[in-house]
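Appendix B: a complete holo record

For completeness, this appendix reproduces one full record from the ligand-bound portion of the collection. The bound molecule is adenosine-5'-triphosphate. The inputs are the chain sequence and the ligand SMILES; the output is the full three-dimensional arrangement of the complex, encoded as structure tokens. No fields have been trimmed.
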Amino acid sequence: MKFDRLSVSAPGGRQLLRETTLTVRRGEAIGVTGESGSGKTTLLKAAMGVLGRGCEIDGGGIQLDGRAMEKLPPHERRKLAGTSLGFVPQLPMTAFDSRIAMGRQIQAVYCKRLGLSREAATGLAREKLRQVNLLDAERVMGSRPGALSGGMLQRVAIAILLGLNPPFILADEPTSALDPDNRAAVIALLQDLKPTSGLLVVSHDTEVLGRVCDRVHVLHDGELVEEGNLAELLAAPKHDWTARFAETAGQREEGYWSWERW
Ligand SMILES: Nc1ncnc2c1ncn2[C@@H]1O[C@H](COP(=O)(O)OP(=O)(O)OP(=O)(O)O)[C@@H](O)[C@H]1O
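The structure of the chain with adenosine-5'-triphosphate bound, as generated:
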């Protein structure tokens, strides 16, 4: 997947992304970090074809398996969701329908995207829920989203992707709303997704950026200003934001960051 000199503008002409070039290959994870408002979510939204009202791609494009995503009509683009491109949200509650039991929602995704029968889809759902350590798969499938914790829902979101096995996965701050146990579990699951998928992960979590991501890009005011693996970036930051990030990274509480664990 390649973001090729991608520029995105907001209503009024403000540039949200300026000539962003970034490649994600299968089997690797690319991190994107940077200050709030620098355009990280805009990058993911552009890839998913869900830019905010009035925002538009006004230069460059996004190639996925040789296709120019920005040129596809919306219905073609939607078909890619779940098959060619998966998404791990920041707040998984927003990704599910609060009125419908999880089992039916997972089943619907597998029936539609993989062409499975309901029975086969339920069997796959059970298997994938167990794979993300939701061992009481029957209870999870019988529950509505509101009855599950954020961490459980994030595991369900990843379980669905493990079943779909899309070649590329986008993740927006996938650990920021999780408690330490679920956070560690999600980091391990992102690692599990990596061998078969290319991951583009927006995060400020140094464990995600350091353990999961092979390279990390720093986005500042819509421009990619530096890149490297996390250890390199923190050891010799070039940009002011990265330098501040490196300072606070060293001070994070145990469990959030420690050089010793590297
Ligand atoms: N629909 C829109 N119209 C106008 N401006 C927008 C729109 N959507 C986003 N922006 C602006 O684009 C800029 C980048 O937003 P974006 O959400 O991509 O940042 P971010 O780096 O993901 O920030 P955060 O870390 O806070 O989520 C922000 O200044 C935001 O206000």
